[in-house]
Amino acid sequence: MWLQVDARSSVPMYQQLVEGVRLAVARGDLRAGDRLPSVRELASAMVINHNTIARAYQELEREGLIEVLRGRGTFISQTPAVARPEERREEMRESLRKLVLDAYHLRMSQEELESMLRSQWKQFDGRRG
Fold first, then answer.
1. What DSSP letter does each residue of 109-121 carry, written as one string?
2. CA–CA dist 92, 58 (Å, integer)
3. Which residues, at least 6 apart from 34, have a Cβ–Cβ distance to it below 8 Å?
4. How far apart are the C-alpha atoms of 82 and 56, rounded to whole Å?
5. 13: pLDDT confidence band, cut at 50, 70 and 90?
6. Using one digit for the tens of pLDDT, what is the confidence trace for 59-106?
7. Distances (CA, A) of 99 to 47, 53, 106, 110
8. What is the DSSP letter of 128?
C-alpha cells in the first residue's frame, strides 16, 4: 500500500497519515483529481480505527490538499490552495527552529544542515505544476 503508519512511532497515527498523503502528492504518486479511498475502505485496509482516518482527512481538507465531494468521494484538490498560509508559515518556522536546535546539539555546521536541506529539496524540485 502507498500509505503506511508505524504504530510504535511517537508521531500520532493521524499525523503519519497526513504526512503520507502530503508526501505522495509531492512525489507525484497522487495527482489532482485522484480519488482517495473512503474512510471506511482505508480503515479496513490499514486495520486502523476509522476515527483516526477521518481525523487525518479532516486535517488534509482543512489544509486544502483534499476535497470531500458528498456522495462522490474524497479527491486530491484540483487547485490546492494553501489554507491559512500565515498560520502554516508560522508552524514551519517553529519546525525549523526545532530542526536548527537539534542540529546545534548534534554539533552540525550550518553548511552541513544547509546541504541536508538542499538534498531534501531536490527530491521535490520541479514536481510542482
1. -HHHHHHHHHHHH
2. 20
3. 75, 76
4. 16
5. very high
6. 999 888 999 998 999 999 987 666 567 877 888 899 999 999 999 999
7. 32, 28, 11, 12
8. -
pTM: 0.73
User: What's the angle, vertex CA 42, arms to CA 37 and CA 45, rounded to 5?
Assistant: 125
Which of 25, 54, 16 lies closest to 129, judged by CA? 25
Q: Which residues of 15-52 are buried (b: 16+ CB within 10 A; e: fewer)?
A: ebbbebbeebbeeeebeeeeebbebeebbeebebeeeb
26 has pLDDT over 90? no
DSSP letter string over 11-80? S-HHHHHHHHHHHHHHHTSS-TTPEEPPHHHHHHHHT--HHHHHHHHHHHHHHTSEEEETTTEEEE-SS-
The residue with cell 541536508 is: 116
Which residue reads 486535517 in cell numbers?
Answer: 59
As given in the structure block, the three cell numbers for residue 121 are 529539496
Percent of the chain at pLDDT exceeding 90: 67
